[in-house]
Amino acid sequence: MFDRNDNMFNNNTDSITNQTSEVSYAPIDENNSMGKIKMKKRLKGFFKAVGALVLVATISTTSIIGYKWFEENEPLEKVEKIFTFGYSDKEKDKSKDSEDSDKSSGSESSGADNSIQIKDWVELASRKNALTIPEIVEKVMPSVVGVSSTRVNGTSTGTGIIMTEDGYIITNCHVVEDSKEIMIVLENEEQYKAKLIGSDYQTDLAVLKIDADGLTAAEFGDSDDLVVGELAVAIGNPLGFELFGSVTSGIISALDREITIDDKNMKLIQTNAAMNSGNSGGPLINSYGQVIGINSVKITSSYYTSVEGLGFAIPITEAKIIINDLINVGYVTGRPSLGIFCQEIDAMTARFNNLPQGIYVVSVNEGGAGDKAGIKAEDVIIGIQGQPITTYTEFNAIKNQYKVGDKITITVSRKNRDIDLEVVLEEASR
User: Fold this and answer.
1) What's the pLDDT at 401?
2) Would 406 be classed as within a structural domain?
3) Is 204 an annotated catalytic residue?
4) What global pTM score does this model have?
5) Catalytic: which of 156, 174, 179, 379?
6) Contact at 8 Å (CB) between 409 and 387?
7) Can you give the pLDDT at residue 47?
8) What's the pLDDT at 259?
9) Do 182 and 169 touch, CB atoms closer than 8 A?
10) Residue 341 and residue 416 in one domain
11) 186 CB contacts (<8 Å, ≥6 apart)?
12) What is the DSSP letter of 311?
């Protein structure tokens, strides 16, 4: 490249020399000021040309040397990583830990780098598959059903989600609780009688089964991947089947929102997608048409005054554990229980009946954990593990920190005497 530039320089010089020699045939008076000016201009042009050629040669040389140095001192993988899109700090840390681990074990780190590159590009490509709201509705609507529950005091309606092509359906426990008969209505208005496979009051989940095949099952996503502010779409049957398949949209307003409903502590997804009575059990959907939550609760004026835009859904990642247990064994496994049936005593009831405020034991399951520990009907539970309690919420918050087989201390009030009892927690069967 230097030879080429040198030739260019020589050619230009010859050209300039020729011009000078051609002009030199005209006599120039050195004392003539005009002649001096012309000579200065020619010289100035000459030096400008030389300077431009030198600058081009310098830039070219620097580029070649710099490229060769970078190529010799920096591996290609590192260069590619700098320009990788969607490469979070957390993934960088994981990559660095992986590289350090590979180095310590004597293995090549390039394998870990390559897997990270592939993952990043796949994730980047998947983000291009986001659907419009009409596309989301078209995809999910066939998987949304109406749930009609006949009870002693009348009939109520809710929503359900088709989970499998052969008829397993997810809904809320409170939608089918104490039902004598459950009917399912599909999008095409076909009706089926449903069987209750299992329900869980604590998480407000239930699984139904209808005798059908070839149904359109919903696609389920991962609620752990949700980000506050992303799109959320709800489909359900608010206020009955006359508004079957109503669609509302909003955003994910908050994650892991702790809500206490009917003495149940729940961690829920919060959304401002409009929900009303009848939406319960329906899907909360992300921008890919995946179910990421089961609509369960709407805060209404019975809790607060003039509330709008506060809907809540059970995260599907947590719900699937419960659903699997309900289908496989009919109840949630691994949940600690005392085997007693209780009723909460508020401050007014306690004063009126001359009892301490706490949890009144209505009955004790024979042979259960409470029975073995000596808990009796009409006892009032006032403490657990040395901590005083007055509500179910306080009691369960402490009890649920322990697992089946653990021994805990329950304090009961019996005929104005406080008694500590050792209870070995057993698995709840229902």
Assistant:
1) 86
2) yes
3) yes
4) 0.61
5) 174
6) no
7) 58
8) 79
9) no
10) yes
11) 145, 192, 215
12) E
For residues 362 and 422, state if they share a domain. yes
Give strand pairing partners of 252.
Answer: 271
Domain with 381 in it: 336-427
Residue 215 is assigned to a structural domain of this protein: no
**Which residue among the candidates 280, 287, 296, 413 is catalytic per the annotation?**
280
The answer to whether 389 and 383 have CB atoms below 8 angstroms apart is yes
Answer left, alpha or beta for residue 329, where phi above 0 means left and psi between -120 and 50 means alpha. alpha
Structural element, H or E, at residue 194: strand 191-200
Instruction: State which amino acid sits at residue 237.
Output: N
Domains held by the chain: number: 5
Query: Tokens at residue 38, please?
Result: 């012309």
Which two tokens mark 79? 């260069």
Residues near 187 by beta carbon (within 8 Å), at least 6 away in sequence: 141, 142, 144, 145, 244, 245
Examine the residue annotation and report whether 6 is marked as an active-site residue of this protein. no
Q: Are residues 21 and 98 in the same domain?
A: no
- Which of the listed residues 328, 350, 382 is the one where a domain comes to its end? 328
Q: Is 10 exposed, middle or buried (0-12, 13-18, 19+ CB in 10 A)?
A: exposed
Rounded to whole angstroms, how far apart are CA atoms 203 and 157? 19
What CATH number does residue 190 fall under? Answer: 2.40.10.10
CA–CA distances in Å: residue 331 to residues 68, 89, 173, 325: 67, 41, 12, 6
> Looking at 113, 200, 204, 325, which residue is catalytic?
204
* Boundary (domain end) residue, out of 32, 52, 73: 73
Q: In this structure, what CATH number is given to the domain that contains residue 402?
A: 2.30.42.10
Amino acid identity, residue 175? Answer: V
Write out the two tokens for 325: 């247990």
Residues of the chain with pLDDT under 70: 1-128, 262-264, 297-308, 429-430
Looking at residue 429, its pLDDT comes to 67
Predicted pLDDT of residue 41 = 54
For every residue of 99-115, DSSP letters joined together read HHHHHHHT--SHHHHHH
Whether 280 is catalytic is yes
Residues 361 and 423 in one domain: yes
Query: Is residue 387 in some structural domain?
Result: yes
Angle between helices 89-105 and 110-126 (to 10 degrees): 160
What is the greatest pairwise CA distance in the chain?
136
pLDDT of residue 69: 45
22 located within any domain:
yes
